[in-house]
Amino acid sequence: MNSNKKTPLTKLKDPLFETHKITVYMKREELNHPHIQGNKWHKLIPNLQVAIEQHKTTLLTFGGAYSNHIAATAVAAQELGFKSIGIIRGQELALHPEKWSHTLQQAAQYGMTFQFITRMAYRQKSTPSVLKQLQSDYPKAYIIPEGGSNALAIKGFEPLMQQIETQSPNWTHLLSAVGTGATLAGLIKYTPFEICRSKEAQNNPRTILGIPVLKQGDYLKPNIQAWLEDTPAHPWKLLTDYHCGGYAKTSEPLLQRMRDFEQTFDIPLDPIYTAKMVYAFYDQLNQGVFKPGSKVILLHTGGLQGRKLEGTRQNKQG
Ligand SMILES: Cc1ncc(COP(=O)(O)O)c(C=O)c1O
């Protein structure tokens, strides 16, 4: 698997950006793989490399019925010759395959087998005793946490940041949607420092902006900080007011912004993650946050698999 497929950095043209004298790009990571797209691709690659090194034969992971990560893991497993097991939240689905989401159906088509567990059991999934039991039940399994978020996943963003650096070495702002914060930690950790200290950057230092899609996103700060370890970090901020009611919730202004963006730039978004990031960007722009001369990059983190065939249930991805 190519860990650093080059994706376009598309310049977005809008008279509003000219009025504010800023340049705006979208980094098109939804195009990095047809199925394991966006941040999932970057998070999985280093984990898959270790699974291969450890001679594991199965990938085992966790998720809800609409999880982008479950779909991505199933596809990656099939491409690399692993078996795959999904531990899925919602025991009631075990006896009702007709109620499976498009995500679960797709994962099953890619060979993933499921264990459906109660919501209460699901909450215990990361405890040492549960993980120990799973490892003993499946000794040849490589266990990946929910959402694919672990220290190795963060390393997966190094090639992406190198790529962005060659495509636009003088960017000033990078925006990304945030779930667990692992993606944001990777972006912060692998943003080169030399550029940030350059003369040019002194008036407009590089800033990385994360947009949590869940309510009260400030609780993510210590997790992100822990993933950064002692890495000297660029200024970064969580913009916690753009969750639109919480995870998988939408609002009419959000959906309107999504439709406008898609129509103007012909780039599809998903309502759970990337649309909230774009919504936050426009609001910050209207508040005058970006100084003239800013070069803003909006990171497309993928998530489009959940839009297929889901109709109105598309707002439940994870
Ligand atoms: C499309 C998309 N964007 C962003 C995120 C957030 O990633 P993270 O959990 O690393 O913060 C996710 C997480 O599942 C996602 O599916």
Entry summary:
By secondary structure, the protein is of the alpha/beta class. Helix content is 37%, strand content 17%.
Which overall shape is indicated by the principal axes computed on the Cα atoms? globular
pLDDT < 50 stretches = 309-318
The value of Rg in angstroms is 19 Å
Determine the N-to-C terminus distance: 24 Å
Report the sheet-strand fraction.
15-25%
Number of strands: 10
Number of domains: 2
Classify the helix fraction into a percent range.
25-40%
SSE sequence, one letter per element: EHEHEHEHEHHEHHEHHEHEHHE
Please give the structural blueprint.
Elements: E1 9-12, H1 15-19, E2 23-28, H2 39-53, E3 58-63, H3 68-80, E4 83-89, H4 102-109, E5 112-117, H5 119-123, H6 128-137, E6 141-144, H7 151-155, H8 158-167, E7 173-178, H9 182-189, H10 193-197, E8 207-212, H11 221-228, E9 236-238, H12 252-265, H13 274-286, E10 295-300
Parallel strand pairs: 2-10, 3-4, 3-6, 4-5, 7-8, 7-10, 8-9
Antiparallel strand pairs: 1-2
The protein binds pyridoxal-5'-phosphate (PLP).
Pyridoxal-5'-phosphate (PLP) binds next to helix 3, strand 7 and helix 9.
Description of the structure:
The chain is of the alpha/beta class and 318 residues long. The protein folds into 2 domains: 9-35 and 152-316, Rossmann fold, CATH 3.40.50.1100; 39-150, Rossmann fold, CATH 3.40.50. Helix 11 links the parallel strand 8 (207-212) and strand 9 (236-238). The protein is globular. It is 37% helix and 17% strand. A 6-stranded mixed β-sheet has the order 1-2-10-7-8-9, with helices on both faces. A 4-stranded parallel β-sheet has the order 5-4-3-6. Pyridoxal-5'-phosphate is lined by residues 38-39, 68-69, 147, 149, 177-184, 270, 273, 301-303, 318.
